[in-house]
Specification:
The protein has about 290 residues and is an alpha/beta fold. The chain is built from ten helices and nine strands. The strands form two sheets. It has a six-stranded mixed beta sheet. Strands 4-5-6 form a three-stranded antiparallel beta sheet. Helix 1 packs antiparallel against helix 4 and helix 3 packs antiparallel against helix 4.
Length: about 290
């Protein structure tokens, strides 16, 4: 069938059509009454690099999806919700890749030659640990291994994850499977620093989750934006952090840019900041607010 079974299942769960119309049934034009920013970027790249076959495949996908979208009356991607939107986009890209006889990564960037390094969530905090009375403020502490292959990196994450669990005598995990500890954030970094010969360290702060009334609430203290930025720059240098995700409130593009300027060797990543909205991604890039994006 035109669509892989997993993608077809996702489409059916979303109430979307999975018919396989011929090209003569399809109207020209780009995707849909629903705006899928990642999809628009991906398909624009595909259509400009490879022409007739991929354009035909895209038209079939569009023609399969569009009736279902219109039936649902969805005019804005935000109406889907993040999880459903991700499944929707993934189904489209997987279908396109299968029809072209390619891997998904080749559709996204056929020139890619470097395999990304995985990041493993080892110690949790923030909203994902809200079921525990005491927990770190930052949402995720990440292990980023340095091995040559993905398999080796996966094994390194698993090994260090287990070592840290034993070291901290951790017995419980949060809703993402990260160890629950009662340590404050800098104490967590002190422990993780013991493993930096094997892995690099990153943090997903999810800063909007502890930003209240223009202050960052660290439980024992409240930081102004300026103090928060200074603190993050200090710990990034002290612990050689290579990755900071959502280090400031999700509306603070200028704050992101200032932190990026202070610690240029650390990847400053937008997730809540950009939220896969094309306009927000463009703004973040134009304002030099990020060096990475989810």
């Amino acid at each position: 069938p035109f669509m892989p079974s997993t993608s077809e299942k996702i489409f059916r769960q979303l109430g979307l059509a999975v018919a396989q119309p011929t090209l003569k049934d399809c109207k020209p034009g780009l995707l849909p009454s629903i705006k899928i920013n990642k999809g628009e970027i991906l398909f624009t790249k595909v259509l400009t690099k490879e022409e007739e076959k991929e354009e035909a495949v895209f038209s079939r996908i569009k023609c399969s999806v569009e009736p279902g979208v219109e039936k649902l009356g969805i005019k804005d991607a935000r109406e889907f919700g993040g999880n459903a939107l991700f499944a929707f986009e993934s189904a489209i890209v997987k279908s396109l890749a299968k029809s072209l006889g390619k891997e998904v990564w080749q559709v996204i960037n056929s020139r890619a030659r470097i395999f990304p390094r995985p990041a493993g969530n080892v110690i949790g905090g923030g909203l994902h640990s809200s079921s525990f009375k005491e927990h770190p403020v930052y949402q995720e502490y990440l292990l980023i291994p340095k091995e040559e292959t993905f398999a080796e990196n996966f094994e390194m994450i698993r090994d260090v994850y287990n070592q840290i669990g034993r070291l901290l005598n951790a017995r419980e995990v949060n809703d993402e499977g990260a160890w629950h500890v009662k340590l404050h954030d800098e104490a967590v970094l002190e422990e993780l620093d013991k493993f930096t010969s094997a892995v690099d360290i990153g943090i997903d702060l999810s800063s909007s989750s502890f930003f209240r009334e223009n202050l960052y609430d660290y439980k024992t203290a409240e930081y102004t934006k300026e103090a928060h930025i200074e603190h993050l720059a200090t710990i990034a240098k002290r612990y050689n952090l290579i990755y900071l995700e959502d280090p400031l409130n999700e509306e603070d593009f200028a704050g992101f840019a200032e932190l990026k300027r202070l610690i240029p060797d650390t990847i400053i990543v937008g997730d809540d900041l950009t939220a896969t909205h094309l306009d927000r991604v463009k703004k973040a890039v134009n304002e030099r607010a990020i060096s990475g994006v989810i």
